[in-house]
Design a protein that fits this description.
The structure holds 2 protein chains of 2 kinds. Chain A is mainly alpha-helical. Among the domains of chain A are: about 130 residues, no CATH class; about 80 residues, no CATH class. Chain A is built from 12 helices and 7 strands. In chain A, the strands form 2 sheets. In chain A, strands 1-2 form a two-stranded antiparallel sheet. A two-stranded antiparallel ribbon of chain A has the order 6-7. Chain B is α+β, with helices and mostly antiparallel strands. Chain B is built from 3 helices and 4 strands; from the N terminus they run αβαβββα. In chain B, strands 3-4 form a two-stranded antiparallel ribbon. In chain B, a hairpin with an 8-residue loop joins β3 and β4. Chain B is globular and about 30 Å long. Classes of the chains: A mainly alpha, B alpha+beta. Chains A and B meet through β3, α8, β4, α9 and β5 of A and α1, β1, α2, β2 and β3 of B.
Chain lengths: ~300, ~80
């Protein structure tokens, strides 16, 4: 059987059989499984499904490609690959370290725990869960590519005739019977987006005539006036005199402004609009002054618009 | 802007009990003049009972207060 392992993008990976025989004497065969993974299937799935921990190979010492692609298989041509993920550093946990950890005491690896773990945590489990972290010697070794001059450190008791099978657990864990994925409950209907309707004069007239319930009409303006500062909300909270509509009373105009025309009713709208109290301090300014003050005062609005 | 959010909240809470409209005074100057809108924002509460005068408020009103006024209108009309 010449099974290959591809990455999650479907690209074919290394041929495990050939690698086992020739290039990687420390690779472990895949166990017999009724549902063998497809060639394009990510090995981590079968890894989790079968409840076994396989070392498909090892990362070349110092190979950082798998660190840059943590969720893929780190492929080391000629040396196989190992499912690793996470923020591991190649110098610390290279293939030599992992291989040495695994071979030192494989019984420390709980296949059930590893089966439920993700590849990243499994690799972590191998490195730390068994109590065998990479020591300085491993790190130094990992910096050099494995070769005949730099073989992986193996325990003397490890029987490595080229293949090794992980010890089976005495009682295989019962398959988790997860309930079938049920369809998510139907989402509640979104709340009604009852927003105020923008109407014009005709629309308002119709709405008032045809009203069957209370009617609330909000008269607003996007124009906020210049100057004053205090933020948009504060400006909005303060009522704005509608001076450009020419609606100020004469008494109010005389009380508040020194340079108003004598009669409001007879003046042009533009004349009334030429003054404004946009700063809210009771001092009326001309539109030009308001505009200048608005720019200088840091207000968000523009100056008074005399129409 | 702030009042608009309060009105949206009121509209969501009261639903069909009330109809909320908004009028841009810069676009509808004549209407604002006709209704003597003197300050912005101005809210006008119009009761379904045509014999009741409309209520007018100027300035920011919190949603709770708007709801109180509307509820009073509903009670008065109903």
């Amino acid at each position: 059987m010449n099974r290959t392992v591809g990455d999650r993008n479907g690209r074919p990976g290394l041929a495990l059989e050939n690698r086992d025989k020739k290039e990687n004497p420390f690779a472990f065969p895949l166990p017999p499984s009724s549902s063998s993974p497809s060639p394009a299937r990510h090995p981590s799935r079968s890894f989790k499904k079968d409840g076994q921990l396989f070392l498909l190979g090892r990362v070349a010492a110092g190979d950082r490609r798998w660190a840059r692609r943590p969720h893929r298989f780190a492929e080391a041509p000629g040396r196989g690959s190992v499912p690793l993920a996470g923020n591991f550093k190649g110098e610390k946990f290279g293939g030599a370290s992992l291989l040495a950890v695994i071979l030192r005491e494989p019984s420390k690896i709980d296949p059930h725990q590893a089966a439920n773990a993700k590849p990243a945590s499994s690799a972590w489990l191998l490195a730390f869960g068994g109590g065998y972290g990479a020591d300085d010697a491993d790190r130094r070794r990992c910096r050099r590519p494995l070769s005949a001059a730099n073989p992986p450190r193996l325990p003397p008791s490890a029987d490595l005739p080229g293949r090794h099978r992980w010890p089976q657990s005495p009682a295989p864990a019962p398959a988790l019977s997860l309930p079938p994925p049920s369809s998510p409950p139907p989402r509640p209907p979104p709340p009604p987006q009852a927003k105020p309707e923008k109407v014009d004069a005709a629309g308002l007239e119709v709405a008032i005539a045809e009203r069957t319930g209370p009617l609330v009409v909000d008269f607003y303006a996007t124009w906020q006036g210049g100057g004053g500062g205090g933020g948009l909300a504060q400006q909005h909270r303060r009522t704005r005199p509608v001076s450009h509509l020419g609606l100020r009373s004469l008494a109010s105009a005389r009380r508040r402004g020194p340079r108003l025309p004598s009669t409001v009713s007879g003046c042009q709208r533009s004349a009334v609009a030429a003054v404004s109290d946009n700063r809210g301090d009771g001092r009326w300014r001309s539109a030009a002054a308001v505009a200048i003050a608005g720019r200088g005062g840091g207000g968000r609005g523009r100056g008074g618009t005399a129409t | 802007m702030v009042l608009a959010k309060e009105l949206e909240e009121v509209a969501v809470e009261l639903g069909d009990k009330v109809r909320i409209l908004k009028v841009d005074c810069d676009e509808e100057e004549d209407l604002a003049a006709q209704l003597q809108i003197r300050g912005l924002p101005t809210l006008i509460f119009i009761s379904p009972d045509k014999t009741k005068p409309a209520l007018r408020t100027e300035g920011m009103l919190p949603a709770e207060q708007i709801k109180e006024i509307i509820e009073n209108e509903l009670q008065g009309s109903g």
